[in-house]
Amino acid sequence: MTLTSGQVAKQAGVGVETLRFYEREGLLPEPTRRTSGYRQYPADAVTRVQFIRRAQLLGFQLKDIKELLALRDDPGADRQEVRAKAVAKLADIDQRIRDLEAMRTDLTQLVATCHGSGPVVGCPILTAIARTE
Question: CA-CA distance, 112 to 84, in Å (whole number)?
């Protein structure tokens, strides 16, 4: 059974342009075409697109997703490789959280210095942002 671009997109919950993007990026194999030029995807394309979307929601970049797909498609691959990629992504997320928390602390302090009234000249927030330290 084959599916059209519209069918795959609808079942996977993405737009048709997303499918084309995934094809260009090498995440989704280019489908065969009917004589009319319409794309014909295998039924498992829906599952593959859903995998890609879920991996993106978990923070994986397209490069990482391509590697995860290659591991998934390789029956000789070891789980340790997949786990290592997930552990690395988790460490990356933890670092981003620390960075965001530091930004939040700094911004909270800046907001506390500004009463929000008066002329913008001399605004402590703008002055702090303009510092070249």
Answer: 42
